[in-house]
Specification:
10 helices, 10 strands, single chain, six-stranded mixed beta sheet
Length: about 250
């Protein structure tokens, strides 16, 4: 089942066309990796899926993105509710300058009226979901900024999980991390897809091959091809995909 579908999606920054007629279906409860060289449109595409590009001046979008069959660019869409359902984790960990507990509790406090006990359970569940609970359970009142980079990124994942999203968008979530932290996040993603749909932008070909079920290859704003990861990596249909995967450019 496809949870998000882009149909003839184009995006312009002023006169520059950053995405060109993209058609891409994203299946539920799978990891879809978006790959391609820098500036190819993969992060721009990721940000169209929860309307993060709305925040950039001069952006124009044509075509549509449907989520559960509804066009998210329709006038009546509640963008705050959309971003609660389709959460985002950024390239650099960006914890709020507050306690570990308050970072995770922030979203639920905005959206729901929970008792203290319910909030504590939710924070614990989110931290467990992000494979961080055992490392921080004795220092929840400490500043989130005291955590290591890898822990901060998992905290940001816990923060995204705390509002019960349906989809998690991850924009190069391990590019600022060391190999050990990267491995933890990759393991975590394998667990997360049991309950969530994950779309990840990565410049790391090996990472895409290791963790994703499906891969989409972008080049200068075009979607060159998309399909099952093992097929894209072993039998790409387009010569440009083959050249990129084998390191001839990029």
């Amino acid at each position: 089942m496809h949870i998000i579908c882009a149909n003839k999606l184009s995006l312009y920054y002023g006169d520059f066309q950053a995405l060109k007629d993209i058609d891409l279906d994203i299946p539920a409860r799978e990891i879809t990796a978006l790959i391609g060289p820098s500036g190819c449109g993969k992060s721009t595409f990721l940000r169209t899926l929860n309307r993060m590009n709305d925040l950039i001046q001069g952006v124009k979008i044509t075509g549509e993105v449907t989520y559960h069959g509804e066009n998210i660019y329709a006038n009546q869409v509640d963008v705050t509710a959309l971003r609660k359902s389709i959460g985002m984790v950024f390239q650099k960990p960006n914890p709020f300058p507050m306690s570990i507990f308050d970072n995770v509790a922030y979203g639920p406090k905005l959206h729901d009226s929970l008792s203290k006990a319910e909030l504590s359970d939710l924070v614990e569940g989110s931290l467990r979901g992000a494979a961080l609970w055992d490392e921080v359970k004795d220092r929840l009142k400490k500043s989130a900024l005291s955590l290591s980079g890898g822990q901060q990124q998992r905290l940001c994942i816990a923060r995204a999980l705390s509002v019960s999203p349906d989809v998690l968008l991850m924009d190069e979530p391990t590019s600022a991390l060391d190999p050990a932290s990267t491995m933890k996040i990759e393991e975590l993603m394998g667990t997360l897809k049991q309950d969530y749909t994950v779309v990840i932008v990565t410049h790391n070909m090996q990472q895409a091959a290791r963790i994703s079920d499906r891969t989409a290859f972008f080049l200068t704003g075009d979607l060159v091809e998309a399909g099952k990861t093992d097929e894209i990596f072993s039998m790409p249909k387009d010569k440009r995909t083959e050249d990129y995967i084998t390191g001839r450019f990029g």
